[in-house]
Amino acid sequence: MPRTARKQSESGVFHAMLRGIDRQIIFQDDEDCEKFLQCLTDCQKVCGFTLYAYCLMGNHVHLLLREGKEPLSQIFKRLGVRYVYWYNWKYKRTGHLFQDRFKSEPVEDDTYFLAVLRYIYQNPVKAWLCEKPEEYPWSSYFPSSPYRSLVDWEKLYTMISPEEFSAFLEKSSEMIFLDAAIDGRLNDREAAERIKVLCQLAAATDFSRLPVEMQSQYLHRLQQERCSIRQLARLTGLTKGQVERLLK
After folding, report:
1. Considering only CA atoms, which of 94, 103, 80 is closest in space to residue 176?
2. Are the C-beta atoms of residues 110 and 13 closer than 8 Å to each other?
């Protein structure tokens, strides 16, 4: 089946997402995130793109950027080559790491620009990795990030003040953007990784040690992300009956 032609942007601004192949984790620790941002820095110098936001999640990354000297496809090619070479060396693996084709959507006006930006920064909050966007260390909104200089904040603050933007981030939205979700249930390996990342645990089996209230909240989220009740019981160490009661 032929690929659908990628939508072009008259403004040159895109919201783009790069995802791990078969939903594979692409950032296993802080060192991986640091390396990716170093690669992004190197590519920005070569490609000349303007970056407005980034957010690194467990198995995908969101970028809001304007093309410069090189098109989006070349930017991601350079970025992928640099990061995957290092990642494969570190984890003694071979082969592809990223899904072969990144996703992108054009951003043509200020209203959509702000909405996309809010969506990107709310990603870790919706994944329960933090309570507020500014608390997540691997997005450009993190106040003390050494990589904040990668981002052109001037465009944002010509549209909205820092104080107004902070309040804007807290508002919910029904708009639909690029999403990392894929149809179909997670396999056990993927589900176990999701439990660890979502609940910030060393192992999925540590889930049973969490307070009951937190277990209930996390189980509802995991069920929404296509984990079955039997699978959740198998991976967390809870019984099927316990999972069912906590999901009521």
Report:
1. 103
2. no
Sign of the torsion angle spanned by Cα atoms 147, 148, 149, 150: positive
Quote the strand ranges of 46-173, DSSP E.
50-56, 60-66, 103-106
More confident residue, 40 or 220: 40
pTM of the model: 0.71
In angstroms, the CA 66 to CA 107 distance is: 9
From CA 153, how far away is CA 134, in angstroms rounded? 15
Report d(CA 27, CA 58) in Å as an integer.
Answer: 5
Categorize the per-residue pLDDT at 234 as very low, low, confident or very high, splitting at 50, 70 and 90: confident
CA atoms within 13 A on the CB side of 20: 14
Give the mean pLDDT of 188-192: 73
HSE (side-chain half, CA atoms, 13 Å) at 154? 4
SS3 56: strand
CB 237 within 8 A of CB 207: yes
Pick the closest to residue 138 from 43, 193, 59 (CA basis): 59
Average pLDDT over residues 148-166: 91
* Secondary structure (3-state) at 15: strand
